[in-house]
Amino acid sequence: MPVSVHSVIATNLATTVSSNRFHRNVSRRKISSSSVKCSVETAEADRWVKLKNGNDSLEICRVLNGMWQTSGGWGRIDRNDAVDAMLRHADAGLSTFDMADHYGPAEDLYGIFINRVRRERPPEYLEKIKGLTKWVPPPIKMTSSYVRQNIDISRKRMDVAALDMLQFHWWDYANDGYLDALKHLTDLKEEGKIKTVALTNFDTERLQKILENGIPVVSNQVQHSIVDMRPQQRMAQLCELTGVKLITYGTVMGGLLSEKFLDTNLTIPFAGPRLNTPSLQKYKRMVDAWGGWNLFQGLLRTMKSISTKHGVSIPTVAVRYVLDQQGVGGSMIGVRLGLAEHIQDANAIFSLVLDEEDVNSIQEVTKKGKNLLQVIGDCGDEYRRI
Questions:
Q1: Per residue in 235-259, pLDDT tens?
Q2: 192 burial via Cβ count (<10 Å: 0-12, 13-18, 19+)
Q3: How far apart are CA 205 and CA 184, in angstroms?
Q4: What's the predicted TM-score (pTM) here?
């Protein structure tokens, strides 16, 4: 039966889900405060999520290592140093890697990495490693042979018989060839070349249409942060109803949501940290659209107070907040492999529990910002604006 978006966003559903999420957080607080052992067990239980649709499922780490930073613009990546860093992340339990066909050498690095895992780690370790990639084709006619050819390229680069997940992006909704592409991807899944089919940057309307066409997508990767709460306004309710999970990126806004940018003034040339990466420049534009630098500083000060209270960093608070949102299965942290590491901060996310006071103090600031759904549009619309 087709799913109605209007029924999905009904007030009673949103209220029920919000109440359930609050009670889950209360339960986690009670467990984590009972003993150190219980705290560790709770954190480990929170580390994993199963993405599922019908008979298709994939268990991933809820904090994903994002590999956009290998594509250039963040510093020169040394291949050996990068693979060593991937092993350190996996050894620390951060075993899910997200990449794309157009992220420079990302898929090739994963291929080298997975072969080292096969040689140097036990079989049960290998089972925990997941490589999620994306295919971003031009909006041309999607034939079976064209789709197969491109998926085979990723399989070869990543050196795997089957892709753990293929996340599909489409540039032009006026061209409904995306349905043809997804049907061909589903056929490849049935052949064993893809384990799960997913989406990236699709809006609520198109996600519903895809599900109504019987495409068993397990997740949709979208931009989502404390500043950009658009996914919670429409998308999350559909996900809650259908079981599709959100994987979020931009959750620490390229590093803007960090101590580095607290109490800085970017309006004075050379007075503050440089916005010297593509992600910092991208998310600074989001800050401007949301409410500007002064309001953002108020948010950082609030988050600093919360992070100090819990003995963690601002980015840890930022990711935990989004992971606690409706429909969110996992959140991305970009990794500058071989150049910088934040493994300790990432692992602290699993044991962090934000209480009602924390959440309220954050929302007191964010409610002063603009509604980005009205400014930009639904999830992914920023990539399709003329």
A1: 999 999 999 999 999 999 999 999 9
A2: exposed
A3: 21
A4: 0.89
